[in-house]
Amino acid sequence: VQLQASGGGLVQPGGSLRLSCAASGSIFSIYAMGWYRQAPGRQRELVASITKGGNAIYADSVKGRFTISRDNAKGTVHLQMGSLNPEDTAVYYCFGTVVAAGDYWGQGTQVTVSS
Question: What is the pLDDT of residue 103?
Fold first, then answer.
């Protein structure tokens, strides 16, 4: 499984951004997909994840502002981010979890929220 992330960039506070991640290879073996983020000097944290069945979880800090979605047939996962604030600035990493095989990671994409 390979993952390719896209969609990061610079956005003003209060703005929106959409991240995308496309999997290739054995995409039907991926149970969960989602996003972690890591800000400078901080630990990597789970932002949101979604199972093949559509069950989603979110970090408390993004609930109500971010929405994760997934297309199982295409092997893609998207993170729609709204009401962005400077605390959302981080490198965002997409991941995919394959049962009995572990986690696979895409390259990070930088999100910067600044005026």
Answer: 93
